[in-house]
Amino acid sequence: MLIQEKVVDSGLSTTIPMLAVAVLAAGKGTRMKSSLPKVLQPLAGSTLVERVLKSFSKLEADRCLLIIGHQGELVKEHLGHRKGVEFVLQSPQNGTGHAIQQLIPLLTNFDGELLVLNGDVPLLREETIKELVTEHRNRNARVTFLSSRVEDPTGYGRVFANDEGLVSKIIEHKDCNQKELSNNLTNAGIYCFDWKSLEKVLPKLEGKNEQQELYLTDTVAMLTPALHIEVDDSGEVSGVNDRKQLAICEELIQTRLRQYWMKEGVTFIDPSSCTLSEECLFGKDVVIEPQTHLRGSCLIGDESNLGPGTLIKDSILGKRTQVTHSVISQVKVGDEVKVGPFAHLRPGTNIESNCRIGNFVEVKKSQISTGSKVNHLSYIGDAILGEEVNIGAGTITANFDGVNKHQTVIGHRSKTGANSVLVAPIVLGTDVTVGAGSTLTRNVPDFALAISRAKQLIKEGWAKLKVNTN
Ligand code: UD1
Ligand code: MG
Fold first, then answer.
1. Could you tell me if 358 and 417 lie in one domain?
2. For this structure, is 78 an active site residue?
């Protein structure tokens, strides 16, 4: 077979066969019962289609064609920023074979291999794709695809092949008879085709099947030789058609991640109760207590202790931090900081080293400098706290006047008494003391004591003066 080659000019003249990749992402995903198109379902923080695109990103394909259809605009919007992705519209969505037929006008001059990836097979590893392409080239096949032997083949196309790996046909689950259903060698939905051969047989597809769709899998019986490669780990080619399969894939990713980090020196007290994202990085001797979840990109310093019952998103925590029963999102935390129990640190907050953020404290978009303490029952929003500030229990920064947000500034070593309200905009100097129960509306100079509350009144013997009117 003739394969077009690109010439790489590197002094030595080298030739590399051309490779195009097509991702099938036009289906509705009826079984998902969702308002989102299936390929936009999230899995451990990224969507199915993002995972599929990532799986071949290092392959340096000459073309990358993403077939969209059902809610295609949404998929396009989601991936719009990606360079080199050509969006191909399939409308209506009349099956996987029909989806690939849409490429015929786009690949008229293309002569090489077409790698086809189902957009709902998200755990595929780059090495496996490379092996598929290499094996296909070495054995000079018209099509080579991945197969997998599974315990429960329900829903998958069944592969009929001889002992040498030569495939005669694929039959979809819905079209199998009782005997064919007992075959547990399944089609993974990942194919490497010789494009020129595929191009010739694509127009011959017919929708004579249960779903009355044009199946890409029917091309396999029309191409000789057709080969399959059985993957070692069937989990890697799990397809996601419904929420149960989505949960299975999530669990597979989570297990992979936890096992990786355990090898790298992280302790999980109750591994299966915790979830991570692939963008999390941990130092040595980090301990993760039960029911702790990390999302987005997080960086956790050595010897930190997270949880139990904690959610951390897109945050950086220093060394030896301790976070208990708390929620932290888009926050930077220095070394040796204690957070919680029951604290909520919101976006834009920066907490320097040796601080303490205690029980039932909410901090939003604030700077808390080294050694400061906000121990109990406080709201600190749009504030800048100097070093070694002590915020008394129940102190509130009243940052919102109903229309705008305003800033509170508290200088080094200042202290607020219990139940203080600081009405922003307001500046408290350094070494200021605020009397308990004060509501402050004006700035306070350095070293001053500010008290603003009703004077205490004592009426001696008042209880005895009460007259019984009955
Ligand atoms: C498909 C295979 C099946 C295989 C399984 C592996 C066919 C006919 N069947 O079945 O042999 O075992 O994957 O997971 O190919 N899509 C389009 N346009 C369409 C229809 C689907 O782009 O008109 C896309 C979907 O968005 C999806 C992919 O193709 O990403 C596969 O479609 P799906 O309906 O999930 O096929 P399966 O029933 O899983
Ligand atoms: Mg599927």
1. yes
2. no
Same domain, 194 and 273: no
**Residue 253, domain member (yes or no):** no
Q: Ligand 1, atom 14: nearest CA belongs to which residue?
A: 239
Residue of 74, 91, 118, 175 to mutate, ligand 1, most atoms within 8 A of C-beta: 118
> Is any ligand 1 atom within 6 A of the Cβ of residue 277?
no
Collect contacts of 413-417 with beta carbons under 8 A, ≥24 apart.
Answer: 413/386, 413/387, 413/388, 413/389, 414/386, 414/389, 414/390, 415/389, 415/390, 415/391, 416/390, 416/391, 416/392, 417/392
**Residues at Cβ < 5 Å from ligand 2 ion:** 120, 239, 241
CA distance 411 to 295: 34
- Token pair for residue 282? 């941990």
Which residue's CA is the closest to the ligand 1 atom numbered 3? Answer: 157
Average pLDDT per run of 10 along the chain, which is 470 residues long? 55 71 96 96 95 94 97 94 92 98 96 97 97 96 98 96 97 97 98 98 97 97 98 96 96 96 98 97 98 98 98 98 98 98 98 98 98 98 98 97 96 98 98 98 98 95 78
Residue nearest to atom 11 of ligand 1 (CA): 157
| pTM, two decimal places | 0.89
What domain range is 14 assigned to? 3-243
What's the gap in Å between 224 CA and the centre of ligand 2?
A: 25
Count of alpha carbons within 13 angstroms of residue 179, beta-carbon side: 1
Looking at the CA of residue 95, tell me the nearest atom of ligand 1.
23
- Confirm if 369 and 356 have CB atoms less than 8 A apart: no
Which ligand has the minimum distance to the alpha carbon of residue 48?
1
Distance CA 197, CA 321 (A): 60
What's the longest Cα–Cα distance across the chain?
113
Whether residues 73 and 159 fall in one domain: yes
